[in-house]
Amino acid sequence: MNITIAIIGAGIGGLGFAALAAAAGHRVQLFERFAQAAPVGSGLVVQPVGLAVLDRIGAGAEARSLGTPLHRMLGHAQGLRRPVLDVSYRADAAGLAMHRASLFHVLWQAAMASGAEVITGATVSAAPLHGSGRRVVLADGRSFGPFDLLVDASGAGSVLSPLRPRSLGYGAIWGTVPWPEATPLPPDQLRQRYRGAAQMMGVLPVGQMPQDPQRRAAVFWSLPLGQIAAWQAAPLDDWKVEAERLWPEVAPFLTTITRHDQMTPARYSHGSLRRPYATALAFLGDAAHRASPQLGQGANMALLDAMALAQALRMQPLADALPAYAAMRRWHLRLYQGMSALFTPMYQSGSTLLPPMRDHLLAPFSRAPLVRGILTRLVSGDLIPPLAGQIFP
Q1: Parallel, antiparallel, or unpaired for β 117-119 and 27-31?
Q2: Separation CA 8–CA 26 (nearest Å)
Q3: Can you list the residues of the chain whose pLDDT is less than 50?
Q4: What is the pLDDT of residues 221-258, one digit of tens each?
Q5: Which helix (H) or strand (E) holds 343?
Q6: What pLDDT is stored for residue 172 in this prediction?
Q7: Spatial distance between the Cα atoms of 76 and 84, rounded to a whole number of angstroms
Q8: Three-state secondary structure readout of 2-23
């Protein structure tokens, strides 16, 4: 049965679900608070199961044309020649590294092509029950609906989600730069360099932006949240000297960074809703769960949520679809939230004990064939089925 659906937020999860739901015949209105919807952020990795969702949406081919295949994640600790992080993808299932703007572009095109209606400049302030549905009330007083289902995909700034996550002590600054002509870094690998767990520099190839053939990279620098303001106030060259001292090969990637505002601060938190739905209301993406980006699963999780909710609506009446959606995603989310909580302090924390354990115990152990296979499936997003009870992809 086709229903009326309101979606809050034109991010990865909101656009992905809008494309799937409208293509299935539902009447979809998407509310976006910005006058012109646009992505926020820099590079990301769409893992193989996320790519399978893009293929279902019909956006996979264009995404691959803009992104770049990612075959390996490699990290070295200062002073050690052997890697302390080394995860390779399966030969037939690489990740896709891309700029958030490129992913936004392909999802926006898919949502528009599917027939979803977008209302911009719409800041949602409330979503009261109206009979068995929900109304959407905007900050400017406009009201829409009622809708059979409201989907909150408005991210960490959601005014509707009851999620109260735990703030993580470390964040990062991110920037997008041209890929240098002269660099020893391969264009199909995520590379990282660590000093203990307190400092981390990373370079991620992100392919190209829409309408721009220039190859680009995302660079990121980890630091405690309390030091972000100090970084913004200090001379930029001081940071470049510090970064190049940690990792000399990163120097060509920093030459075009001449202002602090070319690097965007990112703050992370951790937590999940035990019940990501209420009457005629579903939460997906960061409105339902948040974690460190250490496992590279953020875009994946939002796309999988969108796919699960669309599948549940296809198979069940609305009253049963929301519990079914939660059940499909429950164990996959719990596993990845748990693994993120376990691994993050080894790479982003003030601990002096965890980095030696990482470098001298866990890193050698991770090179065992069985463990390498587990790590490959972990980063690919399919260590366990991403949609419980479903054949996917």
Answers
A1: parallel
A2: 16
A3: none
A4: 999 999 999 999 999 999 999 999 999 999 999 999 99
A5: helix 318-347
A6: 95
A7: 5
A8: CCEEEEECCCHHHHHHHHHHHH
Which amino acid makes up residue 176?
T
pTM (predicted TM-score)? 0.95
**CB-CB neighbours of 259 under 10 Å:** 8
Locate all alpha helices (DSSP H) within 93-148, ordered by sequence.
100-114
Residue 5's CB is within 10 A of a number of other CB atoms, namely 27
> What's phi and psi for 260, nearest 5 deg?
-60, -35
Cα 85 from Cα 109, distance rounded (Å) = 36
Q: What tokens were used for 334?
A: 């719990």
Mind giving me the DSSP string for 65-79?
A: HHSEEE-EEEEEETT
Domains (range + CATH), the chain: 4-166+269-380 (3.50.50.60)
Q: Which two tokens stand for residue 131?
A: 């009979």
Which positions ≥6 away from 348 have C-beta within 8 Å? Answer: 168, 169, 170, 197, 200, 222, 292, 294
Residues across the chain? 393
User: 381: alpha, beta or left, given left = phi > 0 and alpha = psi -120 to 50?
Assistant: left
- First-to-last C-alpha distance (Å) of the chain: 24
Between strands 149-152 and 199-209, the pairing is unpaired
Q: What is the 3-state secondary structure (H, E, C) of 299-325?
A: HHHHHHHHHHHHHHHHHCCHHHHHHHH
Which residue has 């949502």 as its token pair? 111
Structural element, H or E, at residue 270: strand 269-272
* Dihedral sign for Cα atoms in the order 104, 109, 112, 114: negative
DSSP, collapsed to helix, strand or coil, labels residue 89 as: coil
> CA angle, corner 372, sides to 368 and 376, nearest 5?
175
Helices marked H in 226-293: 228-233, 236-246, 251-254
* Residue 112, pLDDT score: 96
Copy the structure tokens of residue 298: 């953020």
pLDDT attached to residue 393:
64
User: How many CA atoms does the CB half-sphere of 229 hold within 13 Å?
Assistant: 1
CA atoms within 13 A on the CB side of 44: 25
Rounded to an integer, what distance in angstroms lies between the CA atom of residue 82 and that of residue 346? Answer: 17
Cα–Cα distance measured from residue 386 to residue 308, given in angstroms and rounded to the nearest whole number: 9
pLDDT of residue 211: 87
DSSP 179: P
What does the pLDDT look like over 305-316, one tens digit per residue?
Answer: 999 999 999 999
